[in-house]
Amino acid sequence: MAKEQTSELDLIGETRRNWGERGIREPEAMAAATSLARAQQVVLGRINQALGEYSLTFSRYEALALLSFARNESMGMARMGERLQVHPTSVTSTIDRLERDGLVIRSPHPDDRRATLATLTDNGREVLTAATAALEDIRWGMGEIADGDLSNLTVNLAHVRASAGDNTDDSLPIFTKGTS
Amino acid sequence: MAKEQTSELDLIGETRRNWGERGIREPEAMAAATSLARAQQVVLGRINQALGEYSLTFSRYEALALLSFARNESMGMARMGERLQVHPTSVTSTIDRLERDGLVIRSPHPDDRRATLATLTDNGREVLTAATAALEDIRWGMGEIADGDLSNLTVNLAHVRASAGDNTDDSLPIFTKGTS
DNA sequence: GAGAATTAGTAGGATGTCCGACTATTTGGT
DNA sequence: ACCAAATAGTCGGACATCCTACTAATTCTC
């Protein structure tokens, strides 16, 4: 979950100097990449801490949210993997745990006997609602950052995502309306 | 390593609409958080793919880089955990693999018999140099994004990190000069 | 139509990360 | 000095993620 507190008052500018001595080629890219990794660690840590109250992780939360928007709150696992941008085996793992906790149930696909549908349960829907409220309470781990700054951040991150072929009209890759 | 290609042409604006119907409270924060998660996934994926060539992961790379700046290219594991912002057990795990691959060696701390020093080996130094070059070649996973945009991104991310107590003068939390 | 190619889901294995617990040492307080 | 408290490192467990491989089923092609 990363350490929230560590006020590493050490100077980071010092670092650039260190690398400078070795002649770094892409300082801006390195700075952005390392900042991105650290920021994500901080935010994800806060989010997971908030979700822990509901025995959820961000991964499982995303899966629940995805199902909540699907027709009949149900979706094939392969499609879930595409939407969530994770490997099929990760979906299996995530659904295993959600099913274990009674938040979703697996059922055979009526038209395709190799497919399995994951469906939200009543309990799953309730937990999702409560968890969403909890995330909003902590502003999705974004601290006290003003909405304006958050918008700028989202735009900048869109550049990165765009370079990977992501749709970046907005920024909710996970909750995109599915065709399921 | 995440899917680079998936041109999810589905509209994300659609999403905001979906959430809007439910009355979302912190749309900007949610957008920023989800964008951050996805962007990090993309960038880390590229970085790890590039590092795979050297049997490294970003975690191990960071550890090697940290040691390379330390006095005598050596540092106590506890301090490494503080610098890298990871749990002590993660350091143990990382050093285990680096030592297994002959990139670092463990040795007892001369003045503190409970401490263990991790020291870069000649091979470790060479691999680090090559890996760094590889990362620069791919611009640390930042694609074709212009330096100016990267600067903006770094600044925006600094806001997030600052809210967690991180020093954000610059953006290289990992390579901060140590006191080791 | 029958076999080839593709797709869906899962099992097993490797990594990374965290947490709690445990041992060994060092520090600190009385 | 001596015992309590803090610190260093590791182990085992829980998760998340990827990859490879494998089975079952569907789709495509000739």
List the helices and strands and how they pair.
The structure is a homodimer of 180-residue chains.
Chain A: H1 13-22, H2 27-52, H3 58-69, E1 74-76, H4 77-84, H5 88-100, E2 104-108, E3 116-120, H6 122-137, H7 147-162
Antiparallel strand pairs in A: 1-3, 2-3
Helix pairs in contact in A: 3-5, 3-6, 4-5
Chain A binds a DNA duplex (30 and 30 nucleotides) through residues 1-2, 45, 48, 57, 59, 76-78, 86-94, 97, 109, 112-116.
Report on the structure:
The structure is a homodimer of 180-residue chains. Chain A has a single domain (13-139), classed as Arc Repressor Mutant, subunit A, CATH 1.10.10. In chain A, a hairpin with a 7-residue loop joins strand 2 and strand 3. Chain A has a three-stranded antiparallel beta sheet. With 180 residues, the first copy, chain A, is mainly α. Helix content of chain A is 56%, strand content 7%. The first copy, chain A, is globular. Chain A has helices at residues 13-22, 27-52, 58-69, 77-84, 88-100, 122-137, 147-162; strands spanning 74-76, 104-108, 116-120. The interface between A and B is large, with 83 and 83 residues. Chain A binds a DNA duplex (30 and 30 nucleotides) through residues 1-2, 45, 48, 57, 59, 76-78, 86-94, 97, 109, 112-116.
Features:
56% helix, homodimer, 180 residues, 7 helices, mainly alpha, Arc Repressor Mutant, subunit A, disordered C terminus
